[in-house]
């Protein structure tokens, strides 16, 4: 029986090293998010432990390899794997990215930028539609962290996402850290961007830490998911989470992965921020 | 103005070679460098995760350089990075500085096999007792379970592998030659076992197309130190062989 998310649930990412502690009582977080591609093996201990996790926690399946933002249609073999995983786990959320990573049969392991044009919008909408049809459910699309400003853009990102929602019925995974990074790196007005997003479509928040590359000119914020959430991001989150109290929140931490206790402390900070309760910063 | 696909191809060309990423519509050079570094570094890290013993033998810096070169020439075809690096051992074989260290690619192949086996589909192993009870065991067509791999090493790396597994300092490899290993997952655990060349030959014959009786008719070669029965016993004891597609019970009168 799939487990559902309570309103305002707070979760963290699933890492192999934390599985035993996560299965102990009491459960330290409300839900777990897994990177779909890490669990697409045919069998073995990793998948067996995933089934134990699925019996204990509501899950969010977060894909990183569907390349929805490219000109190519989704790879049917990979889509089949995602459909199988989603049918197996019956997760509370399924999400992917406004990005591309596959071209001419090769996979590039990053979330590459999508030119924001009418052509791209039509292709991304087609790709999202293909995936949603295959899954038989709504997909959440995550806003990207960007490091280049594309002069060929003819649409604002928020307008692009709003139109994608309108055309496909998809939802949004609003990564506030990504929005903050892109605003800094591209000289974009963060508040205007957040205000222009279709708030009704937001089905999940992502929060994460980032780093600053001072060797770049001008310095770039890098989405490395390698530390605590910064105060500027917490401030936006506190406001948005109170505007959308039912939306679940996921704290990502994918490099320099901390102890489970430290990660859970970051999740507790999220709870405090959404409740408007002061919460002291926690050390690394 | 080119199509999205054309722009993507120019973007990838800029990822592969910074010198080609000079068109203004691809974005700013420092930003492009972030994507380029992300692609390269994530693949190096995927290889480091898959091949920790190979990394220990080569040293962090040489491994990163070799992995980076491999990543540049061999982008994954599959977003499941657990499967990335299938050709890494062959790539190491082709590196001239490693010409006197070919045992490193033996270790690399064992690590790749261990990872493949750990993610392979589950299937029950054929027990020796069930085979013995069968009225016509020699007529059965047997094949390895999905969670098994045979690795042909060119050096005796058994002691070296043990030291690497125990976290000790590496020891020199043993003599060069033909050193087959069977890598098998059973009851959730992956075991790596050196076996005789004769056992390897029987394993190769049990490929799902040949009846057991015929497969056991192997010509002895110089140096063989086992009988066909002993080799079959090894395969059964390690849990290499799967239960035949037609369940044994159905054949039992």
TrEMBL record, chain A:
Q: Which Pfam families match?
A: MbnB_TglH_ChrH (PF05114)
Top-level taxon of origin: Bacteria
The protein's matches in Gene3D superfamilies, at most eight in alphabetical order, are given as:
Divalent-metal-dependent TIM barrel enzymes
State the protein's name.
Uncharacterized protein
Automatic annotation (TrEMBL), chain B:
User: Which Pfam families does the protein's record reference?
Assistant: DUF2063 (PF09836)
Domain Putative DNA-binding residue range list: 7-92
Under which name does UniProt file this protein? Putative DNA-binding domain-containing protein
This chain's source organism reads Halomonas beimenensis
Q: What is the lineage of its organism?
A: Bacteria, Pseudomonadati, Pseudomonadota, Gammaproteobacteria, Oceanospirillales
